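WARN retry 2 of 3 for item q-0093 after timeout on previous attempt; input resubmitted unchanged.
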Amino acid sequence: MNASSSAAGWRVPQDLSGKLSALEDEQRRFITSGDFLAFMPARQMEFELASRDADKVRALISDLKAVAAEMGYDESRDMGAIPLNLTAKRFNQGIMPPAALRKEDRSPGPFSVHRYIFPESGVPTFAGAPVAIWPEDLVAGKVDVAIVGIPNDMGSGRRNAGAAPHTMRSLNTISTPDIQTLVNPTEVLSVVDYGDLAIDSMSTERTIGHVTAMVAETAGTGAVPMMVGGDTSMLYPGVKGVAQARGKGSFGLVHFGAHPDADSQAVHTISDEQALFLLIDEGIVEGDELVTIGLRGAAVNQDTLQWLRDNKVRYHTMAAVNRNGYSAVLKRVLRELRSLPEQLFVSIDVSVIDPGDMVAAGRIAANGMAIQDLTRTVRHLCAARDIVGFEITDMAPMLDYSRLSAVNANAVLNACLVGMAARKAGYGPDDVHPLALDHGQ
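OK item q-0093 returned
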C-alpha cells in the first residue's frame, strides 16, 4: 500500500493531536497529510508521538523530511531519464554484422566448428550441431531446425535469463534419442546452431524489431526457428516473425506458462508481462488460435481470466489440473487443437514447471507442472502437428548452481526435437518401439 492510499485511511489519534501544536506548520502538514507513511508505518508514528517530548518529535520529523528530500527527484541534483533516440539506426551497444562478412570465401551450407568426432570436446553448439550463419546456409543445407539464442534480459522477475543460451549450449543434453521410438533427432532432422541474435541491452523496444526481422528471415527459408531466450518478452517478436513469414492465421499457438502475460495497463509498451496481450491486441494471433496451459500466481485474477475468456482464449489453470488431473486437462487440450490449423507454434515459459524441477525460473511460481508432464505434452504436440516455431524462455541459470534447471530446460527443447523427428520418420505421436516398451524376458 503506497503513502497516498494509506493516508486516505489514517488520521492523527485525538489523544495525540496535542503533540502537533508544538511543530512548525510544514512539519505538522508532513504528518497530517500522511506523507510520512512512505518512510514510517502509522503505528510506529503513533508510538513515537506518544513516547517523545516536543523537542524529540521535532527532531524526528526533521530527520524524516530530510530523508524524503533525498529520496525525491531534484532537477538540479539528479539525472533524469535517458531519452531513447527513436531515429538511431543502431543499437546502444554491440556491432551489427557488416555486409562485408558475406564475402567470406566458402560454399553456402552448415559447417562444423568441432575439432574432434565428439562435439562436446570442441566449440559448444546446441545439440552438437553444425553451424549456419546466413539464410543461404539454411537453404543449401535443407535445414529443418535452426536453434538460435536470444539473450535478452530486460524482463520482470529475477534477472539472468540472458545467460540461458550459453548455459544450455554447454550441456550435451540436447539431441538425445527419443525414448518412445528410439529415433535420434539429428539423424533424421537437419539441425543447425544459428548463433545468437543481437539484442539491445538497454531497450527491449529496439530489440524486438531486429528479432522479428531475423525470425521472419529464418522462417522464410523453410527452417523452423527454435528460439532459446532470454526473457519472455521475446515471445512477441518470435511469433510475429513467424507470422510475417508464414502468414497470420496460418498457425495456432500453444503457450505453457504460469503467467497470462496479458497486462494491458503496464507502463512499458512491451515486456514479458504483455507478450500475449500484444499478439492478440495487434491481431498477430487471434484469441481462438491460442491455448495457454499452467496459469497460476498473482497475475491470474478475475479481470485477466475474463479478458482471456472474452477474447476466446482457451486457458487451463492449475486449478483445473488439481481438480481433474493433468491427463484429463491434456485430453481437453488435444480436443481443442482440432479447431486450430495443422501448423503450430509451441512456446514454453519455464515458470510453468514446478520449482522443484525449475528453481531457476525468472518469474518463479509455486505449485506448477511436473517436468515429466510437460516434456510428454511437448513431445506429443511436436510429433502430432507441423511445427513452424518453438520457443523456450526465462531460465536464469545463475539461480541454480546444480544445473538441474538447465538440464530440464534442455529436456523440454529435446522433447520437441524428438517429436519432430518421430513425425518425419513416419511415427505417430503415441507410437512406441517394442524394445523401448518391454524387455521381452
